């Protein structure tokens, strides 16, 4: 072995040790988004990742690893090294999927270290005005007593679907679920009259409501109206109480991540979520920033697991 190569071999362990001794982070961080690019996840994940990159001083690269309702990307993070260089950007599917899928290869409470809630968005019920006479939640309920209304969601087991079941249980609304492969097709068929209404996130509906192709009945999630649909009342304003759900987004690391790394991530995330420019940018897209403690994020997952367990069992929903 020649001298330069020998020196390189001898130096390699020293260089590795030096890299490990450097403060976290000292190379790019991967942020796994377990759904396809271009959807609701990307609308909040990518602006957040841009700002987190600046706060950490290292690139935060969004990695869309879609499949199986979010399970493929989530499982990959659960199996990743607990070093802070692979993070998970998840939402309320962490509370639904364990109740829907048999043989799930991750536990949302055991396998992840919560860092912070990041944001939330609202859902809405929007009807085809040529098929449905209703203009509010009470008249929609009355109309459903005369005939069963068909509603579309992004798919079986998604939070809009489970909320639709919960809403029907608690209000007595007669509805039939029509699952689609994504939000777009559900909205398209509501506009086309193949179904009576769509139950999806507000950002997916705004342009069609403003164009008069759909009539928004109510906004779901939170106590305030959506800035994108300020004329549309909330469920509580519509006289429906005790039934609500917003779609939340949160940041997680693999379980076992060192405390000092988690502390750095919490501090960086808090700094990002305190930026008024980011809050306004996301507000215009239909998202609210919702910073939290790790404990509050963990509690949100626990609450959703229990809530959706009851709905899944009552509606007899199963997924393989």
UniProtKB/TrEMBL annotation:
A Pfam cross-reference name: TctC
CDD domains membership: PBP2_Bug27
Keyword vocabulary terms for this entry: Signal
Top-level taxon of the source organism: Bacteria
Keyword Signal in record: yes
Alphabetical list of InterPro entries matching this protein: BUG, Bug_dom1
Protein name as catalogued: Tripartite tricarboxylate transporter substrate binding protein
Protein family according to the UniProt entry: Belongs to the UPF0065 (bug) family.
Signal peptide: 1-21
């Amino acid at each position: 072995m020649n001298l330069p190569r020998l020196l390189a071999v001898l130096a390699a362990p020293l260089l590795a040790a030096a890299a490990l001794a450097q403060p976290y982070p000292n190379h790019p961080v991967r942020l796994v988004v377990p759904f396809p690019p271009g959807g609701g996840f990307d609308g909040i994940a990518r602006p957040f990742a841009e700002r987190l990159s600046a706060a950490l001083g290292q690139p935060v690269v969004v990695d869309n690893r879609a499949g199986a309702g979010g399970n493929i990307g989530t499982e990959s993070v659960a199996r990743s090294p607990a070093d802070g260089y692979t993070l998970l950007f998840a939402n309320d599917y962490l509370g639904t999927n364990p109740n829907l899928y048999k043989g799930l290869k991750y536990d949302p409470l055991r396998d992840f270290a919560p860092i912070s809630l990041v944001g939330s968005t609202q859902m809405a019920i929007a009807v085809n005005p040529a098929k449905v006479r209703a203009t509010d939640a009470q008249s929609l309920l009355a109309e459903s007593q005369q005939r069963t209304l068909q509603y579309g969601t992004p798919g079986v087991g998604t939070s809009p679907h489970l909320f639709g079941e919960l809403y029907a249980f608690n209000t007595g609304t007669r509805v039939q679920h029509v699952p689609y492969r994504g939000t777009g097709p559900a909205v398209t068929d509501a506009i086309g009259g193949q179904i009576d209404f769509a139950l999806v996130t507000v950002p997916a509906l705004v342009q069609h409501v403003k164009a008069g192709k759909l009539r928004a009945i109510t906004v779901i999630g939170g106590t305030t109206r959506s800035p994108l649909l300020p004329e549309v009342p909330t469920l509580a304003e519509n006289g429906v109480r005790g039934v609500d759900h917003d779609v939340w987004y949160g940041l997680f690391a693999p379980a076992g991540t060192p405390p000092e790394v988690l502390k750095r991530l919490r501090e960086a995330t808090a700094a990002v979520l305190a930026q008024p420019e980011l809050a306004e940018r996301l507000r215009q897209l239909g998202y609210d920033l919702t910073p939290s403690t790790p404990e509050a994020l963990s509690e949100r997952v626990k609450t959703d697991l229990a809530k959706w367990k009851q709905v899944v069992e009552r509606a007899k929903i199963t997924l393989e």
